[in-house]
Design goal:
globular, 32 strands, about 650 residues, 14-stranded mixed β-sheet, 13 helices, seven-stranded antiparallel β-sheet
Length: about 650
């Protein structure tokens, strides 16, 4: 146990769902866990009377142990266990099965309050209730519990946490030694063999549904593809590969349809769960004719709303790809009709000759418009759209039990609004179901015999008011130019640059602020700077949120009027026979410090032919950078004896989407 327990203030209440006791009998590898729910509250050194904050629970725990084992399960401490069929057993639940009908009637009534005294008769609130307490579990067995958290009264941050302990070998039997168990007398293998999945169980049905069905809403998607003459060659090949891969990610009951347009339009495959038929229709496309984007949208809308297999309550999605400019009809009007009918429209612009404004306008939002300058980029675009529309129930964590509890040891903040950016607070008087499933894979061998583990699993709630969380923004690094690799259509709204230049007291600019231009960028302001190789100096880029920006390098500032930021930020480093390192990155949004979840440094170094170019992207959204923001850090430049001396041979850019 923790020798330094947390101290909770008057706004915090903890529910512990844990105390796992795991035992494997020699007859077969097995998991045995005993989990308890308890509600504890601690008030130390104060006499404050705070607003109420409470968590209450109902839960359902099941065990997949194979058919014909009911008496065995009952003998393991579950005398009231029931056989649910197909080798699945109900271990326990609150409310009890006897109360379940009455409970469901209460929940479905408009006036029911989970946090009322009436609910206390059914919900868990401080009672110790075993979830798992099993022995002699065999490879292939699994168990699942869905806990329904009811946040009462005040809005709350909710954190899921856990601890894995007593991961024991428990000696070595003959079967383990024959299985080449290498941990004799030390740590057991069980925690590394059991697979765990934790997720937001949106429909509270004890089943992880990753493809949208967890929302109890079927997906119907129409892939609307440009097959005009300009699509011949690499464009059409990339379309076939990417679109068929997208279809391959679908699973029943989701349906797909294929629509193509050139001079005319065609419904090539009506809505169906026969995904091979949709893929075959797409693979049969040939290129020729003009570009009737509007016609394709009209045909797809009719199929999604009125097709033979269309379902009224389904989630309707249209993915429209084109590589040029429309020359028949009005796609904007057609798309607006579809959007007004409740269809979400994703637009994809392929190549460098596409009407980017049209693609953006037909999409349901700017974030639903995607661009692939090169056919090779199309796979990534369809994959990103698939992640959006096929997301379904979101995982909180997955992996081996050791890996998942490694994350839970630090606590995982649960997200009260998964449609918004960042982790959000849970509103008061709301409910969230969390699923926790374990499985000992069938292929696990005798190395886990006699091993045992124990674990705790819990939830903390902390009042939102006066306990603001520092927002987190993800960062990543990559190779190449940031704007080309990460920004839509490879375009930045503004940039700042620090370059080595000629490194003389006057002459070429080394500090600059600018905007894109053709064939050269528009330099709004510039200044000279003499670098000291090997010396780290500070820099910052500040936007005031009103169209003005200032870039400062080691006290030398340039400023100017820039377009509004509209997405990601980041830094590109470039080096030829030199090294440049940007470190200690920090970000403020609207005057508030933000935690960077990922790398806070990027560098480039080269000692040979060519130039190394690498980047770090900060995954801000348009809303994050709509107001004032600042990105800052330190930069160090060092050049080698054979440094070529070109103005751009060592430099760093701050890019704003």
């Amino acid at each position: 146990m923790d020798d330094n327990p947390k101290r909770y203030n008057t706004t915090r209440r903890q529910i512990l769902a844990g105390m796992g006791a795991v035992g494997l009998a020699s007859a077969g590898a097995g998991l045995g866990t005993t989990a308890y729910f308890s509600d504890t509250e601690s008030f130390s050194g104060n006499t404050l009377e705070a607003g109420t904050l409470d968590l209450k629970l109902d839960y359902k725990s099941t065990y997949m142990g194979g058919p014909g084992r009911l008496e065995h399960v009952q003998a393991m401490g579950y005398p009231d266990a029931t056989d649910l069929g197909d080798g699945r057993y109900l271990l326990g639940q609150a409310p009890t099965p006897e109360d379940e009908i009455e409970w469901e009637n209460l929940v479905q009534s408009n006036e029911f309050d989970f946090c009322s005294p009436e609910a206390d008769e059914y919900l868990v609130n401080g009672d110790e209730i075993p979830v798992f307490s099993l022995e002699d579990i065999k490879p292939g067995d699994s168990g699942e519990v869905t806990v329904s958290l009811h946040i009462c009264d005040n809005p709350a941050w909710v954190t899921m946490n856990g601890a894995l302990y007593d991961n024991l070998e428990n000696g070595m039997n003959e079967a383990e030694m024959e299985a080449l168990d290498l941990n004799a007398g030390a740590v057991g293998e069980l925690a590394d063999e059991i697979e765990v999945c934790v997720w937001y169980d949106e429909d509270c049905d004890n089943v992880y549904e990753p493809t949208g069905t967890g929302q109890q809403q079927e997906l119907e998607v129409a892939l609307v593809s440009d097959t005009s003459g300009s699509m011949s060659g690499a464009n059409l090949t990339a379309l076939k590969s990417s679109a068929t891969s997208f279809v391959g990610n679908l699973s029943s009951p989701d349906e797909a349809a294929a629509v193509s347009f050139s001079t005319s339009t065609s419904l090539d495959q009506e809505l169906t769960t026969d995904y091979a038929a949709v893929q075959n229709a797409i693979n049969n496309y040939t290129a020729g004719g003009n570009t009737n984007v509007a016609g394709g949208i009209v045909v797809a809308e009719d199929e999604l709303l009125n097709g033979t297999n269309a379902t009224g309550g389904a989630s309707k999605v249209m993915i429209v790809l084109t590589d040029g400019f429309e020359n028949i009809g009005d796609a904007r009007d057609a798309a607006q009709d579809a959007k007004d009918a409740g269809i979400r429209v994703f637009g994809i612009g392929l190549g460098n000759s596409v009407d980017t404004a049209l693609v953006t306008d037909i999409s349901s939002s700017p974030g639903d418009a995607f661009f692939a300058p090169d056919p090779a980029d199309l796979d990534t675009v369809y994959a990103e759209i698939a992640q959006v529309v096929l997301e379904g129930e979101q995982k909180i964590a997955s992996g081996t039990m050791a890996e998942v509890f490694g994350l839970l040891a630090d606590g995982i903040d649960l997200d009260g609004d998964r449609q918004a950016e960042g982790v959000q607070c849970y509103p008061g008087a709301t409910t969230q179901c969390i699923g926790f499933e374990w499985e000992l894979p069938a292929e696990v061998g005798n190395q886990v015999q006699s091993d045992s583990i124990a674990f705790d699993l819990g939830f903390d709630a902390e009042q939102c008011r006066h306990n603001e969380r520092t927002p987190e923004i993800t960062t990543r690094t990559g190779q190449g130019f940031l704007k080309q690799e990460e920004f839509d259509a490879g375009i930045e709204s503004a940039f700042a640059r620090g370059r080595f230049g000629d490194n003389l007291a006057s002459g070429a600019w080394e500090v600059a602020l600018g905007t894109p231009g053709s064939p050269t960028p528009n330099i709004l302001d510039q200044a000279n700077y003499v670098w000291t190789p090997g010396q780290s100096v500070p820099f910052s880029y500040v936007s005031d949120g009103m169209g003005n920006a200032t870039f400062t390098l080691d006290g030398n500032s340039v400023s100017g009027a820039v377009p509004a930021a509209n997405g990601k930020l980041g830094i590109t480093t470039k080096a030829d026979e030199a090294t440049i390192a940007v470190e200690n990155l920090e970000l403020d949004l609207a005057g508030e410090a933000v935690t960077l979840d990922g790398p806070a440094m990027v560098s480039a170094t080269n000692d040979g032919a060519g130039r190394e170019v690498s980047y770090l992207v900060v995954e801000t959204a348009a809303a994050d950078v709509a107001d004032a923001f600042e990105i800052r850090g330190d930069v160090t430049v060092d050049v080698q004896g054979d440094f070529p001396g070109g103005d751009e041979d060592v430099a760093f850019d701050i890019s704003v989407e």
